[in-house]
Amino acid sequence: MSVVTVKRPAGVFTYSMELQIHSNRYLWEIQKDFSEQFSFLKIEFFSKPQLSEKPFTAKNIISNQRRVSDMAKNSIDSTISIYEEMSVSELERLFNDQCNLSVQVFRRSGNIWLETTMTDGWSLRQQNEHGKEITIGVAKSTPKPWDIDDDGGR
Fold first, then answer.
1. How far apart are CA 127 and CA 108, in angstroms?
2. Could you tell me the pTM of the whole model?
3. Could you report the per-residue pLDDT of 116-151, keeping only the tens digit for each?
4. CA nearest 38: which of 131, 144, 110, 118?
5. In the 8-state DSSP scheme, what is residue 43?
């Protein structure tokens, strides 16, 4: 996995990863690669819902023991460039537009995984940091002895 800096019209962003999507890959391999970079996020693959269904329900989740070829009508050989400042909705759209795969990003919150649908506009970095704060907590600094004012402020 390489880290590349790219200049975009809105600024400079750092690629976090190049995610390889090939027909012969297992979904768990793609999930593992993604979560190695964003340890408090995960992606789930979904079958496209029928028109009568509400978008993406738990019954639409595809087992990660399946291959990409099980989901795609055509052969896929693609690389998705993912950068930290990319929003969740941008990532989900990339999977759909580039590979015709439906994914949803989930954020870890303690021992559970929450869909990020309410915060799809947040960057992957923001989502990951928020998941870390909720799961591990914010490191609290211990006051140093010289920071404690015990003699009237002198």
1. 9
2. 0.76
3. 988 999 999 999 999 999 998 755 545 555 555 555
4. 131
5. E
